[in-house]
# Entry
Amino acid sequence: MPPIIKITNLSKQYRLGQVGTGTLRNDFQRWWCRIRGKEDPFLKIGEANVRTIKGDSEYVWALKDINLEVNQGEILGIIGKNGAGKSTLLKILSRVTGPTTGRIDYNGRIGSLLEVGTGFHPELTGRDNIFLNGAILGMTKAEIQRKLDEIIDFAGVARYVDTPVKRYSSGMLVRLGFAVAAHLEPEILVVDEVLAVGDAEFQKKAIGKMQDVSRNEGRTVLFVSHNMASIKALCSRGIMLENGFIKFSGEIKLVINEYIIENEANRSESLDNEINRDGTGIVKFYDFFISNQNGEKISTVLTGSTIYLNFKVYSEQCCKIDLGFSFFTMDGLKIGVLYTGYQDYYPEVKPGISVISAKLSNFPFYSPKLIVRGLINVNGELADWPHKHLGIFNVENGDYYGTGKGIAVDSFFLFKSEWNVYE
# Structure
């Protein structure tokens, strides 16, 4: 079966600053080349879209040489930092804008939810906009009417369906927009980050609907989100965009891990030099490392082992602090947190560098990699909260239960109990 979407050598170029109209002669030449399938004669050589670097060219490639095939019934996750090209790709797929070079072959209708209120006329009622969107998708009035009650019920806007949508909240617009896109039977459903506007209940409902249309109805979903937990729960395959290029493609777990590792690697500067941090700065994190019982620095921890988390802090004065740290999985799930204050312990630090060590016996957490983040409070006021992690370490299956053998671990947390039989 041919792919439902095939993208070949797709690129999109934008001009920075004020865009001139050019001349009528140039416009005619560009149009003549386009209808003959030739390259734009006035296409400029641009730079990669690296937002952190000031370039010399007035042209940038928002997307460059994208090649991708998506099969029917597949849910594809698209991830990447802000400015990576995710929304540009979805806009081209949704025919909101055209590519500069390359082509896309479709085998079905596309329903899109790109931005809050996209495709809605603000002066029309919710009901009228449902029919308008259905007509744009090529559906007949009878087909739309058959789905109308289901759409209104899913969106939860029955009371306001005959009110102009300009009076809707952003959450109501997103709910109605998603309901229209998901229920009007497009073969391809394109959903951008706008689901983040909805509340937790609606997000769960929307993810369930996307799973349903893919598994039971064989429709294809392209999903963009910064919520790695949602991406992991919904998608089977993914791509990671970086500066307009596909940096990584494959099984969704591998793509998410690559994305997080890449982000953390780009932020590997010393904690002391980290400028993105909140707090008074009276006391701040200087360094972090993990050691074993022999005092040796380690980067891999075995479940059931005893480890020491060592926090180097720099203080401007003598004071007592409340230091806290959390463990996160690579897809952003917090699985453990501890503050010194939980145990009524407030270590006193002096001006300069101090090392605060936390002994963790019988380490109970399991995930292939764990991220450590931390913060410091002084007298109930935030002193330091670095935006970057304190460290990342590997976790491997150890002898947690002291039986001399490992076990298959399929959860984030291990625990022990005492067993008895009563008659």
